[in-house]
Structure prediction request, 293 residues.
Amino acid sequence: MKQPNKNFENRLFYVNFDFYFLAITIGLEMSNSYNKLERAINSRKNMLCIGLDSTIAKLPTHMPKTAESLLKFNFQIIEATRDIPAAYKINTAMYEELGEQGWDILKKSISVLPDDVFLILDAKRGDIGNTSMSYAKSLFDTYHADAVTVAPYMGEDSVSPFLEYENKFVFLLALTSNKGSQDFQRLICDGKPLYKHVIAKSSEWASHEKLGYVVGATHPGELGELRDENPKRVFLIPGVGAQGGDVNKVMKANKGDLSLINVSRGISYASSGEDFAEIARQKAIEYAQSMAI
Prediction:
């Protein structure tokens, strides 16, 4: 009987190993934040994003007003809602104000989030290139955000360091939910409002798998127009609840396209009593049902 050729077997092993390694590498490259967002929305079957804009001043009445209580509050909100939303959005300013202790709370809060949900760090950064590069490294490398919010006022070179992260996502401020959005964003330039110029120009910088926009729920008419003009772009839609945005109007304006609708105070601070986590879960379920896909 002819003996197996050992050299051939060895070569076959290395070919198979190389193919397996290549398949893993390709899989990792394709598994970017955009893909993760799609999976999260499809698996949770809703577009809810829960905002963790936690502050010591707004802790439930039975909790001591301390940093330790703030961390405990976050843990309990996350544990109560972890199986519901497609994403969590954390406003970094609420933690920055506490200095080193706040950054530690931020990191520990992130560490207990479910792996399959999308994480947005709402930092609204934007500065000259090397400064933006440091911001990007902090938010993406140190705090492992899937996406960050970025201010576009300083132009492309202030945004590009965030876009250069291959597997990350950027939400650029376009038409925000606050009252002051009318001061600049609605100024008419060459026949159309400034926020439309921002979207038109920045759309040249990256594809829909890298760059989306913040569009406030308090502007459902404009949201509908922007959705018609940008059907593939992901919208982060804040302003539902405390700021007056209406879920039904937002869902109608969004026309079923890929978006995240953020609710912060309407969930996290729905109760100031000892039942805060239980009530937060109830509210999250209600919002998720109203944002079902």
User: Anything to note?
Assistant: The chain has two domains: 1-30, 31-290. The first strand starts at residue 48 and ends at 51.
